[in-house]
Each structure stands twice: as C-alpha cells, then as structure tokens.
Amino acid sequence: MNLFDPQLLDRCISCGFCLPACPTYALTGDEGSSPRGRITLMRALDTGVLDVDDPRVREEASFCLGCRACEPVCPAGVQYGQLLETWRDLEWAGRDRPLVARLLTTVTAVTPLLRLLGLVRRPARGAGPPDRSLMLGCVERGLFPGVSRAVRRLLPGIAVPPAQGCCGALHAHNGDSQRGEELAHRLGEQLPGVVVTTSGGCAAHLATVLGRERVQELSEHLVATGTTPVGEVRVGGRRARVALQDSCHLRNGLGVAAQPRALVAAVADLVPVPGEATCCGAAGTYSLLRPGDSRRILDPKLDAVEAAGVDYVVTVNPGCLRQLDQGLRRRRSRVRAVHLADLLLDAAGGRALPRPRRRALRAGRG
Ligand code: SF4
Ligand code: SF4
Fold it and tell me: Which ranges carry the 4Fe-4S ferredoxin-type domain (predicted)?
C-alpha cells in the first residue's frame, strides 16, 4: 500500500541490535515493544495484514517514546524517527489524536497566543545583527522564561525577535507531520541567520526541515563559536558536583553529546551517572499521555542521580527539565534540576541558581 516510504521501511534487516537500547523493550522484555517489533507492525500495516485500528498497533504507536535510541546503534542506518512520524500520522489523524495532544498542537500553532504568553512570562527579547537569532520555544516560554534571559546575558549580541511561532516539533511527533513542517518553515522565515535553540527536541526537528547548517543547539553554538565559559559554580565552599541528562533527540538525532559535557566540566565537577544518555520519560507529550509509563522510565534515573551525590542535574531541553524537576520535587530530593544556560550564568557571576537543599526532607519516592 506504500503507507511508509519503502526506502525507509525496507532498510531494517531485523538484526535486533537495537533491542538493548530500547527503554520500552527494557521495561517489558516483549519483542512487540522493541524497535524491530514495531517495524514489523509497520510492515504489517503497509501490506494491509493489519489496519490502523488494530489494538496492538495502536498501543505500540503510543507506547513508543520516540526517543530514537534505536538509531545510533542500528548498523543498517534505519531512520526510525521518520518512520514513527509517518506511523503517528496514520494512527493519530484528526479526532483519533489524543485530546491533550490535540489541544497542545492547536494552541501552539497560534502565534498571537504565544506572543501573549511572552508578554506575561517575559522571556528574553532584543535586537542584534542578522547572523544568528535565539528561538523562544513554546514550552520554555511558558514554564522557564528565565532560560532565554540567561542566554541573552551569556550571548549579549544575539537577536531575539519577539514575533516567533512554534517550531512544529510537537505537531510532527503527535500525528501531524505536515503541519510540523509548515511551522518549521515559517519559523525559519521569522528568525534570521543561524537559529540557536535551548531545546534539543526543537533543534532536531528544525534541522530536519531547515537543514543542519541553519540550526544549532545552545551548547553546540557555544562550543562552535569558541565561547568559553567563565567562573565556576560553587556549593558550600566547594566546586559543585553536576550530572548531565542528555536530550534524546539532540544526542540520537543530531549526535550532540560531548558539547554540553565540556561546558559543564568547565565550570563544575561533571559526575557521570548510569543511564544519563537514556530517555527521562518526558518525550514530548508522553508524560501527559502515559504518566504511569513515564514514571517507570523516570524513577530509576532519579535513583541513579541521587546515588551519585550530585548537587545539580543539568538538562538541555525544557521538557526534560520539567520532568526531572517535578520528579525530584516529588521525592523531596536535595538535587536540583537546572538548564545548562542557568548553570553557565551562575558560574559567570550572573543570576544565582537555587541552592541544593541541605538534606532530603523525606527519603524515598514521593
Ligand atoms: S532497526 Fe536497525 S538495529 Fe533494529 S532490527 Fe532493524 S536493522 Fe537491526
Ligand atoms: S524510539 Fe525509543 S522507545 Fe521507540 S522503539 Fe526506538 S528506542 Fe524504543
């Protein structure tokens, strides 16, 4: 039926190398919840053996985190993220899209609403030469407007046009890849020069649509431009101990993992934590659509972060920041989740980070 691009679907050689990398396979041990199993389901859809209403097909399209951890380990170069977008387009078309996803994709597509949000939450704004501009993400504008203000202080010359729409990543990952592409093109016209973003997920989507040379995630931009961090982050008279949580799409989609680590290590003691490269369970709308599964993914990660004895866990994506912050607060951990931009600004003597709590108020999970 050619529902999927045959060049993408036929690439899988069913070797199974991707299985150990997949968080949902790790949870269930069920082949059907692995990348290879899901590609088998896509093939069954493509040949008409199963249809989009099949309960297992529906369940697996939703259970998949879309983290793309299956891509870098795949010897055949399967572009699983693109296959998943097509699959979600088929499963979540129109009223079949989950209500939360429908609401979020509708609201974020309305630029005047985003501008209104900007007036209330006051993210960064400012003019600059037309060679680079800072993207104000939808989630970040609403929940963490201080992150863009931190970037503007770290990079005083960067332009931050206030008239910015959504990048469309939310749409592309939630069953409307065509709208996702349109929004990315529109944002590309609104932002001059290199688009710098503080969101790994947005960076990966924009790079796919606008071209890799047009888009840089913040850590990538700082390293590429030789912007050396200054100062250090201190806690209780010593250098802070800091873990890094990768952004899945930044690491698995764009291959950016060394840069944020180099920046953290320049201003603090970077502490490796088991599982730091795997998904935190935020995964776009996943934590809203499947909160139980999202917690099952998150909890072992928070256990590892706490066991490592760090003061902060740094993220490079607002969705991960929200997920880790909420999880750590729930268990009243002494560890704080912060964005990389805020860590670097604290080191430089700018706005201070919230200090880690002296001790956990209550041990164990909330
Ligand atoms: S997706 Fe890649 S790693 Fe996984 S089974 Fe197919 S070819 Fe092998
Ligand atoms: S995107 Fe993530 S959860 Fe989905 S199949 Fe690939 S590794 Fe598994």
Answer: 1-32, 55-78
Predicted confidence (pLDDT) per residue in 262-292, tens digit: 999 999 999 999 999 999 999 999 999 999 9
Query: How far does the centroid of ligand 2 lie from the alpha carbon of residue 366, in Å?
Result: 27
* pLDDT at res. 364: 44
Is 35's C-beta closer than 6 angstroms to any atom of ligand 1?
yes
Residue 70 Cβ inside 6 Å of ligand 1? The answer reads: yes
Is the CB of 23 inside a 6 Å radius of any atom of ligand 2? yes
pLDDT digit string, tens, across residues 154-181: 999 899 998 889 999 999 999 999 999 9
pLDDT tens digits, one per residue of 14-25 = 999 999 999 999
In CATH terms, 6-91 corresponds, of 3.40.50.300, 1.10.1060.10, 3.10.520.10, 3.30.930.10, to 1.10.1060.10
CATH topology (fold) of 234-347: Rossmann fold (3.40.50)
Distance CA(331)–CA(362), nearest Å, equals: 7
Tell me, using a 6 A CB cutoff, whether residue 287 lines ligand 2: no
pLDDT above 50: residue 363: no
Q: Is 19 in the pocket of ligand 2 (CB under 6 A)?
A: no
Domain assignments of the chain as residue spans, ordered by start: 6-91, 100-224, 234-347
CA of 319 to the centre of ligand 2 (A): 17
Decide whether any atom of ligand 1 lies within 6 Å of the 255 Cβ: no
CA of 33 to the centre of ligand 2 (A): 8
**Which of left, alpha, beta for 145 (phi over 0: left; psi -120 to 50: alpha)?**
alpha
